[in-house]
Every structure is written in structure tokens, then in C-alpha cells.
Design goal:
six-stranded mixed β-sheet, 209 residues, Ribosomal Protein L4, Chain: A, 2 domains, 6 helices
Length: 209
Amino acid sequence: MKLKVLNIEGKETGRTVVLNERLIPQEPNDHAIYLDVKRYLATRRQGTHKSKERGEVKASTRKIKRQKGTGTARAGSIASPLFRGGGRTFGPRPRSYDMKLNKKVKRLARCSALAYKLKENQLIVVEDFSLEVPKTREIVKIKDNLNIGNKKSLFVLPESDKNIYLSFRNLPGADVITINNLATYDLMHVSAVVFSEKAIEILNASVES
């Protein structure tokens, strides 16, 4: 599939880039997208939750009442989960929420997300650009030129650029990422995806490998 290349002023350059057909499945797989987004969000969880159980509560070890003759259930420790201030039964412990997903499923999910962006005309290709100094005003101007000023957008670059990153940092509704870190979630939670020419070349090459 051929895509027109625009410049940062929003005008056509007369050039086109070819998007590898293997990147665009005939029918997007919604379940693959669901699994990959679920995996991505799960891996972002810290998993540092922790509550004290009975053996971890610092409390007196004396027997709080005699064993028999009270008319109530026996109790041997104030740290019991039955008492206020006692430990929690089967409380949460630190754990990893990482999920395993096959490489082919992750690739299918990302390709399906790209297919949706193409179908909805939310994928834009611009010529490679750079900034001499960090300036958020320039990024706002580029977004306006591409008619995505009011849309939540994602710019995909071939490699990290400090000046561009700093220009995006305090701009709400816009983000920048390198092509190697692009995930299905990144594509699905924005309304416009802007690829640079070199980023498209790297994306095409990733399918061939």
C-alpha cells in the first residue's frame, strides 16, 4: 500500500512510501489486540502490594483468655485475623503481573492496530525532521499543519531525539516514541499516528526479519 509523504507544513512532497502488505492483515484480529493490550497494561503494574499476615503482626504473644469456661471460642493470640488489628488472611503479596504472549500474536496485534488506523484514515507519514532546540511551540505548529491539533496523537520516530522529546514532554494530548518501542496499546489509545519516513522503513524491515 502506498502512502503519501507530507512535510511538516502539512503539504504533499510528491513522494510516497510503500507499506509492506504483510503489515496489513485482511481482517484485523480483535482478540489478538485485546490480549496484547492486556499484557501491556499488566506489565506496567508494580505489584508491590503487601499486607501483614498473622505471623508478621507485632503483638503480644500472651494468651488473651483462658482456654475453657468463657462460653466463647478459644483464642490464643491477639494477632489472629479474627481480632481488630490482627493479620489478614491470605493477604496480597508482592508479585509480578507479567504475561507471556507469543511473538506471532504480538505481531498480529500490532498489525491489526495498524490496519484499523489505515481504515479510519488516522495514519500519517511525514518527512524526517529535527529541531535545533527544544520548542513546544514548533510541535504545536506541526500538529496544526497536519490537522491533528485537537486530536490525541502519537509521533513515531526511527530513533530517540532529545530535542523532540523535550518539546513533547509538557504537551497534553501528544506523545513521541521510537519505532522499536511501539506497542499495540500505543496505537490504540490515540486518534492519530504520525510516522516519519525512516520509521516506516524500519517497520517494513521488521516484517522481513
